[in-house]
Amino acid sequence: MDARTWLGLEPSHNPHRWHLPVSKGISTGHRAMFGGSGLGAAIAAMEGTSDRPVVWATAQYLLFAKVGTVVDFDVTLAVHGKKTTQARAVGHVGGTEIITVNAALGTRSYPEERTYCLPPEVQKPETCPIRERFSTVNDSLDSRIEQRWALPLGAKEPTEIEPGRIAVWSRMPELLEPSAATFAVLGDYVPMGISFIQQGKAGSTSLDNTLRVIDLVPSDWYLLDIRVDAIASGFGHGVIHIWSEDGVLCAIGSQSCIVRSREPGSHSPPKRLVESPNKSE
Questions:
Q1: pLDDT of 110 above 60
Q2: I need a labelling partner for 132 at 20 to 30 A (CA). Which of 29, 66, 125, 223 fits?
């Protein structure tokens, strides 16, 4: 199964329009489309329209798309050069815009290829414990992704590799090949890192999701190397590196999130500036 089929993305008679029925299998336990599913679908749509692979894509999440609705993606190839395309995809339910994605697509040749960062030293996935889930819903996107806490060498239980940094082994058993859309889904787990370093006392909602594709390396398990850089003014910011089991860097993601306390009676901090209402909350 490829990512387009896994997500349920459907082409239309118009090569610039695609349809994504929002099913439980691409949604959260709250029955709304998982952010990575939206970015993954937009990526697959832009790749299908341009016939080029995504190099970089970023999504801005505006509103939630509920299970049972259909997100229509309209793709625009703003600049379609000899080797590089600049494109955008706007996803909407009826007349309401849900997600906006900008991207660059294409392939180029250059004599040198090198990765300058290194994966964390962790135990093999088969020796690591299964990740517990907060939600009791068993037919959401989470149920289609297997995850194990990536224990640092010598560790006996899940722990931070260094302050603000954790790692999780992940795999999607139904998928037979890696793709940018696959990594878009796996790259939407910075909120999990925020929850972990807050000892489960906080949840978060993604405002954006940016993906940079390095290498589509096949791997049974992928290591999600999550680094929470900061939590400030009620927002969290972090980066995720996706590695193959052999230590090949596959993709880099980054996100900013609204952070909410799960503690009863807690409140958001006072606003520093006068702000307009944010519909995404």
A1: yes
A2: 66
